[in-house]
Structures are given as C-alpha cells and as structure tokens.
Amino acid sequence: MTAGPRNVAREMLPHFARLSVLRDVTPSTYAGRAVARRRRQRHIVPMQNVLLPPVTLRRLRRSEMSLFEAHLLRLDADCRRLRFGQAVRDEFLRAYARRKPERGTIIEGAFVDGVLRGVAELRPMALGSRAAEAAVSVEPAFRRRGIGRQLMERLTLRARNHGIRTVVLICLPENVAMRRLAASLGGTVSFAPGEVTYTIPEPAPTVFSLARETMADLSDRLTRLDRWGGPAGRHA
Prior knowledge:
alpha+beta; seven-stranded mixed β-sheet; globular; Aminopeptidase; two-stranded antiparallel ribbon
C-alpha cells in the first residue's frame, strides 16, 4: 500500500488522535479503574476514521479504466515504487491502465465521495490457471483507514467464488503495511532478493460465500443509487 501527503483534516490532528465515545467513569478502586480502562479502549475510535466519508466497494467495469488511470496518476513517487516495485513514470501508468485486461482479471475499486481512491487487482498467473496475483494501491490521503484491508477481503472472496485457489501477493521488504495485511489473511511467506512473496490459499466456494458476494454487490449498488441518484455515481 502507498504513502504520501495527508489531507487538511488529518494535518490538523495528531497522527494518533483518538475520540472516546464513552462518558467519563471514575471508580474508586484500582480494579474498577482497570475495568473502566478496558471498556474505554474497546470503544475508542480513530479520529481519521470518524472524519472519513463512507467507502463504497465495487468491481470496476471495462469502460471505467479511465478512473483507474486517474487513480494511478494521483499516486506519488513513493506510492508508485511500493505498488510496482520500482520507480515508474506517468507514461508507464497510462499504458498499464489502458492495456486490455487478461481473461479472468478482477479489478475492485474503493470509492470515497464517488471518487476512486483505492484499487485491488487480481490477475491470473496464466490462462486457465487457478493461481492469481493480487496487488493493492490506496491514495496517500486515504491510507491507514482500513481501505486496503476491505479491498483485499473483497478480492479474496471473489477469487474464491471464481475458481482461484491460490492468491499470490508480491511486495518490497519495506512495505510493512502490505506484509501485515497478507499475513493476517493467512498467507505463507517466502523471500527472494528485493522482494517478499505471500501465498494465500483459498478454499472452494460454498453457498454462503456465494451469497456474501451477491449481497455485497447488491448493497454497493443500492448505496450508489441512494447516494448519487443513479447507477453510475459521480466520478472524478
């Protein structure tokens, strides 16, 4: 995942600012204070998440690759290096977004206020393969808000339901956020010079996993209709 400048709201707050939604509790005993502290910790909400508008996840259509291109161009130099493993120019990003997707490619988008701010890609390792490589990019001002995790969880659900049995994620050793995310999804790790590879096994689909995907798609479609008054939504 990527890193970069923060938006105005986040610059006005300490990096680890927190908002407690509990009323003050002042027990008289040490044990009581410990209990109250644990209760407060369970209800502490990161301030940046309170300020973030709702995130809508949905699969991108082929006709929306211009949105994908605009998202990639908004990544700064460090973001691009973490995403592609090396420094890349605008020309490379434009060509990457405009190329014809391989059969079986899935591109999942995260929209904030109708603008594409994060993307998860799943591309088959080979035609007809049951293994696919995943990649995630989130724009600088929208990192550390759980968007990357939401995208990967949705992507692995689609992978499971569409015949993929192994999801491979390759990142730079210093990409700590992505490494933690991949490990939390059950990935086993292997190392090579300059890169780290996580292999995430996917079980066979079930009635419940298929229903989860259907309900997620329906929920996102209804959210767009309710929020923007039409199926297309508002784009940058």
